[in-house]
Amino acid sequence: MYLILVIGHTGQGKSTWLKKFIAGKKQYVFDVNNEYNLPDDLQIRPQMRNRDLNIPRFLKNCENLKNYNICFEDATGFLRGKQQKELSQLIVAKRHTGNNYIFLFHSINRVPPELMEMSNFIILFKTNDNIELIDRKFKNVTLNNAFLQLQKSKQYSYIEINTI
Predict the structure, then answer these.
(1) pTM of the prediction?
(2) Which of 102, 73, 76 is CA-nearest to residue 90?
(3) Which of 27, 30, 104 is CA-nearest to residue 69?
């Protein structure tokens, strides 16, 4: 029953982290690159993985899921501007459905402020963001410090931020 934001530049390990996190668990993925294996239960078939990027159908399918990891691979392209009412309703109801919502972003500054406010955890990898823009948008010292620490790192790593 969490909202998890996974943020990192291309090639930093976001998808690898997500695949390990959801392995062996019930999952439904907005799979823009057709790279995730989905379980057979609830008759979720490959065509329902939204390879055609059918956002309304994906959100409608999510309404009937319970105790799932619902993942938005490449949420940077999925979310533009103000969030759809249906998506907001799903996220708000996460405690009642037992669903985790996991959004992958390529940039901190692409995360909508509403999602940042509602998030329970942030898994932050190295990004190409600008610290001044991050601070101006979110004013979050913990996020800023994690970003700066990762910028100094020469190896692939991430920092988990508990936002609860």
Answers:
(1) 0.89
(2) 102
(3) 27
Q: What are the tens digits of pLDDT across the range 55-75?
A: 888 888 889 899 999 999 888
Any alpha helices (H) in 28-118, and if so which ranges? 55-62, 75-78, 85-92, 94-97, 113-118
Range of the domain at 136: 3-162
Phi, psi of 87 (to 5 degrees): -65, -45
Residue predicted with more confidence, 38 or 91: 91
Tokens representing residue 140 in the block? 């979050």
SS3 string, 56-79, reads HHHHHHHCCCCCCEEEECCHHHHC
pLDDT in tens, 2-42: 999 999 999 999 989 998 898 778 888 887 777 766 555 44
Report the CATH number at residue 51.
3.40.50.300
CA angle 56, 60, 61 (to 5 degrees): 120
Tokens of residue 152, six digits: 């100094």
